[in-house]
Design brief:
The chain is of the alpha/beta class and 460 residues long. The protein folds into three domains: 123 residues, Methylthiotransferase, N-terminal domain (Rossmann fold), CATH 3.40.50.12160; 251 residues, tm_1862 like domain (pyruvate-formate lyase- activating enzyme), CATH 3.80.30.20; 63 residues, Nucleic acid-binding proteins (OB fold (Dihydrolipoamide Acetyltransferase, E2P), Beta Barrel). The chain is 34% helix and 22% strand. Strands 2-1-3-4-5-6 form a six-stranded parallel β-sheet, with helices on both faces. α2 links the parallel β3 and β4. 45% of the residues are buried. It binds 5'-deoxyadenosine and iron/sulfur cluster (SF4). The site of 5'-deoxyadenosine has 12 residues, from β13.
């Protein structure tokens, strides 16, 4: 049997698709080269905005319709939308065989067996018996990888469906994380991004350190910072990133760790959502524009090269022109290197869904466009400062647009296009002198290859 997973949504979904694919391969299924070939079709769904759900339902409908000609085909859906819509999905998608929620992926092989033996409309949802270690597999050959550290979210921002669909926070024990990073590095991975909705809350709920765990060599107390330190000290990983974060976790200790741990990359994804205090308060974000900028200042003081990216929602209920201008100002004051802008989408069951969605679609589109243009100007200005500088780039392979050039990312997570020297391999850490800047891309010439060890010494 062959399978194919079609993925919508965030990096966590990308990682979940990879983990499920590896699990299915271990159970004897083969990845299909094309959707037309696959015997098992799965959509990995996202619920964060209404449009993402509409797309997933549409895709499932198309997939399930092919069962008229190929009745043996199995069609399933996994992820956030399953937890939200549950049995409703079987009504909305004729021919859907199974649906499995975000904390149940380890059961997909068993569900497939039940469908193959004739059962239909199988729903598996719920939270409580996380089996994350059986979902620790990764594709071979990659030089970057995602690693889950924290499932769920306890923050309950007023607009966000994630706590409802991904459940309460559960931190993965540190031993499993460190073992996974070590096995990735043995397989050639140079850069790991730790994943969680709010990674700095790692280890604040359930216990994560075994009784045998050493204490922090640098005297750190916060569990997330201790995890960064343990990965830095107990694995030979060259580059360590994490996402997503919240200003309340931007402590002096985190700042010190980002400065002192050679593996820690000088990049932070820190969603701002809005720069207007009344809007932030209604969003229940737990900070003001000023306290957000203060948190950022703490990190920038420790790590002057820090690059910062963000998420913004435009058109939240009650967002006035004046609120919007505060967001523009705050984005400028924060000096974001990149920003992902989203138009507000009411999610049933969230507190904000009870408030009138009163910013017209056209105005949301306009605000979205204004922020994108602001960000392009700011991104270009910040990137132009890097012309003439030499950056460390992880070579990821040929650029999509021009195969003679390669693409990679700087430690600050900027895309860098460069001309490879003979002998340059995927996974090399190369030194690139930047010659030209665009708002989201840097262009340069390659200079020197560093081994991961040299690279860490170089940073030391
Ligand atoms: N509408 C629009 N954007 C949303 N996000 C989360 N919920 C919503 C919503 N209801 C955005 C936030 C978050 C990102 C992943 O998606 O900006 O940081
Ligand atoms: Fe949503 Fe807030 Fe959790 Fe992020 S931290 S997923 S915005 S509730």
């Amino acid at each position: 049997m062959t399978f194919l997973v079609h993925t919508y949504g965030c990096q966590m979904n990308v990682r979940d698709t990879e983990a499920v694919s590896m699990l299915l391969e271990r159970h004897g299924l083969q990845p299909a080269a094309t959707e037309a070939e696959a015997d098992v079709l799965i959509v990995n769904s996202c619920s964060v905005r209404g449009k993402a759900e509409d797309k997933a339902i549409g895709k499932l409908g198309i997939m399930a319709a092919t069962k008229r000609e190929r009745p043996d085909r199995i069609v399933g859906v996994m992820g956030c939308m399953v937890q939200r819509l549950q049995t409703e999905l079987f009504k909305r998608v004729d021919g859907l065989d199974f649906a499995v929620g975000p904390r149940r992926f380890a059961r997909i092989p068993a569900l497939l067996e039940r469908v193959a033996s004739g059962e239909r409309h199988l729903l598996d949802i719920g939270i409580g018996d996380e089996d994350i270690e059986s979902l620790a597999g990764h594709e071979e050959g990659a030089v970057t990888a995602f690693v889950n550290i924290l499932l769920g979210c306890d923050r309950r921002c007023a607009y966000c469906i994630v706590p409802d669909v991904r459940g309460p926070e559960w931190s993965r024990p540190a031993d499993g994380i460190i073992a996974e990073v070590n096995s990735l590095v043995r397989a050639g991975v140079k850069e790991v991004t730790l994943l969680g909705q709010s990674v700095m809350r790692y280890g604040l709920g359930n216990p994560v350190w075994s009784a045998m765990a050493p204490s922090s060599p640098r005297g750190y107390a916060e569990p997330f910072v201790r995890l960064l330190e343990a990965i830095n000290d107990q694995t030979p990983l060259a580059r360590l990133r994490f996402t997503s974060s919240h200003p309340s976790g931007c402590t002096a200790e985190l700042a010190a760790a980002m400065r002192d741990l050679p593996a820690a990359c000088p990049h932070l994804h820190l969603p701002l959502q809005s720069g207007s205090d009344p809007v932030l308060q209604r969003m229940r974000r737990g900070y003001t524009a000023a306290s957000y900028l203060e948190a950022l200042r703490r990190l920038r003081d420790a790590v002057p090269a820090l690059a910062v990216t963000t998420d913004i929602i435009v058109g939240f209920p009650g967002e006035t022109d004046d609120d919007f201008e505060r967001t523009r100002e705050c984005m400028e004051a924060a000096g974001f290197d990149n920003a992902f802008i989203f138009k507000y989408s009411p999610r049933p069951g969230t507190p904000a869904a009870d408030w009138e969605d009163d910013v017209p679609e056209e105005e949301k589109r306009r605000r979205n466009q204004v922020l994108l243009e602001d960000q392009d100007r700011r991104g270009l200005r910040l990137n132009e400062r890097l012309v003439g500088a030499t950056l460390e780039v992880l070579a990821e392979g040929e650029s999509q647009r021009n195969a003679e050039r390669w693409s990679g990312r700087s430690d600050t997570n900027k895309i860098v296009i460069f001309e490879p020297e003979a002998g340059c391999s995927i996974g090399d850490l190369v030194k690139v002198r930047i010659e030209r800047a665009m708002p989201q891309t840097l262009y340069g010439e390659r200079q020197k290859v560093y081994s991961p060890q040299e690279n860490r010494e170089h940073k030391d």
